[in-house]
Amino acid sequence: MQEEPATVGEIRKALGGCQWVTRRMLKRHGNQFPTRDQVELWRKNPPVWFLQEKKKRAEEQAEKVTVTCPACGFSIRVKAKTARYARNYEGLYCGRNACDYQPPKTDGMVTVIEYNAVGSFTGWKHVFPDNKQTASIMRARNLAAAALAVQPGSPAQRILRALTAPAGIGTHIVSVNDWSTGVIVDADETVEIENPMVAAGLHRMVTEGEDAGIIVRTFTNEVSHTLASGAKVPVKEVRGWHLNEGVFQPMDEQAIFSASCTDAETGEPIAPQRGVRYLDAYPVEV
Ligand SMILES: [Zn+2]
User: Fold this and answer.
1) Whole-structure pTM over 0.70, yes or no?
2) Which residue from 59, 182, 185, 271 has the least number of CB within 10 angstroms?
3) CA of 100 to the centre of ligand 1 (A)
4) Distance of CA 63 from the midpoint of ligand 1 (Å)
5) How far away, in angstroms, is 82 Cα from ligand 1 center?
């Protein structure tokens, strides 16, 4: 006689290797610690509760749903239970390299994507930007306004040229609060703006008299130092302005240095970045 309780492993083996049988399930059916003798009997005559659980699981497995990518038609079969996660998203797509689907963009909203949202599919949804600065710059009304902002001769383009051209031809990074765009000034002083949303947002802040901190970083031809990889790091010039009631108020070298080299949270000084030169800002007329 084998009176001692069987292990979960022995029980699963006797029931045909069903790994989903758990001690908790046994408890639910009023038989948490069956003896080895009892389990030996189950091998030939599986208990009713086990057959019911098995049937339930088979039904769940059969209840699968097809999810199809809207772009390429690739589809997967997932459990109905998994498919319900689709409710948390505005849309799903396959996310495979072979498929170039991109979620649509909506003005003023941020697109959040989550991998493996439903099975292997990626989910996307639009959410409102979660901080005030983001919200204000994203209020750049719509993408049409952003597209207009980078047209030659547009007010937004004139503002960015006035901010960057006096620092020289070449590449500049213009930061407006937390947002940045690359701005390339060509020899004929035409400018290329990488992120139209930032240009449109800055233009709106100027016209609506909103306050902002503006920093222009300019990449020079001078080499500051060479990295272990052999890459040469250029000297960057940094200038800053306070935008206040539509007027760019230049910061002097000392002010931009302390603004850049002070921890915003603690007020403690932080080491200046290597290869960075802080300079007096020039007047910006718009
Ligand atoms: Zn696809």
Assistant:
1) no
2) 271
3) 7
4) 24
5) 19
- Distance between Cα 101 and ligand 1 center (Å): 6
CA of residue 81 to ligand 1 center, whole Å: 22
Query: What spacing in Å lies between the alpha carbon of 27 and ligand 1's midpoint?
Result: 45
DSSP letters for the chain? ---SBPPHHHHHHHTTS-TT--HHHHHHTT-SS-BHHHHHHHHHS--HHHHHHHHHHHHHHH-EEEEE-TTT--EEEEEHHHHGGGGGSSEEE---TT--------TT-EEEEEEEEETTEEEEEEE--SSHHHHHHHTS--HHHHHHHTSTT-HHHHHHHHHHGGG-SEEEEEEETTEEEEEEE-TTS-EEES-HHHHHHHHHHHHHT--EEEEEEEEEEEEEEE-TTSPEEEEEEEEEEEEETTEEEE--HHHHHHHHTB-TTT--B-PPPTTEEE-PPPP---
CA of 196 to the centre of ligand 1 (A): 28
